[in-house]
Amino acid sequence: MAALVLLGLWFGLDFVGAPRLVDREPVMSLAGLMLGLLVAFLVAGACRTRFMAPVYSLALVLWILLQVETHWSSYVFPASPAKLRWYDRVFGDHIHLLPSLPERTTPDAYHTTLALLLLLNLALAIRDVFRRASPASALEAGARA
Questions:
Q1: Nearest C-alpha neighbor of 116 from the set 6, 16, 2
Q2: pLDDT of residue 47
Q3: Which residue stretches of the chain are H helix?
Q4: Which residues of the chain are modeled with pLDDT < 70?
Q5: Quick check: 25 and 14 in contact, CB under 8 A?
Q6: What is the pTM of this model?
Q7: CB 14 within 8 A of CB 22
Q8: Counting CB atoms within 10 angstroms of each CB, which of 45, 72, 115, 119 has the fewest?
């Protein structure tokens, strides 16, 4: 639960903005919808809603795929000149933790941290999927009833 809160707080910087870290996004946007989903997952998790871990895992996989396409594929493989220009225009003045590579985009510090938080949340969500599916967890649930 703490990792989800941390992800929500970090992603929430999108709506406040932080100079050289992340530009401010409007709440009525795809990012706003994603923040709303994070809040819904947090509430559902707090209420121990059944089947939430698999749904949250799927949502995280989709978000990670979006991040890979936008920020990471062109760091690993050469980017097109158009993507290099776009990326430099949008993220060029942001702080970067990773080394710059020729003909590649370099994810900024915000998106590098976001990727780590997404991977952490995915690992914990997958752990929860298997924990709830294991016979031991069913026995523990029965013992509490």
A1: 6
A2: 86
A3: 2-12, 30-46, 52-67, 73-76, 81-91, 109-133, 135-144
A4: 133-145
A5: yes
A6: 0.87
A7: yes
A8: 119
DSSP-derived secondary structure letter, 27:
S
| Residue 47, domain member (yes or no) | yes
Q: Which of 121, 105, 102 is nearest to 113 (CA)?
A: 121
The pair of structure tokens assigned to 10 is 């970090």
Domain count, the chain: 1
Domain range enclosing 20: 2-134
DSSP assignment, residue 22? B
| pLDDT for the residue 49 | 81
Tokens of residue 20, six digits? 């050289």
Rounded distance between C-alpha atoms, residue 129 and residue 121, angstroms: 12
Tokens of residue 93, six digits:
């003045």
- Residue 75, both tokens: 């760091």
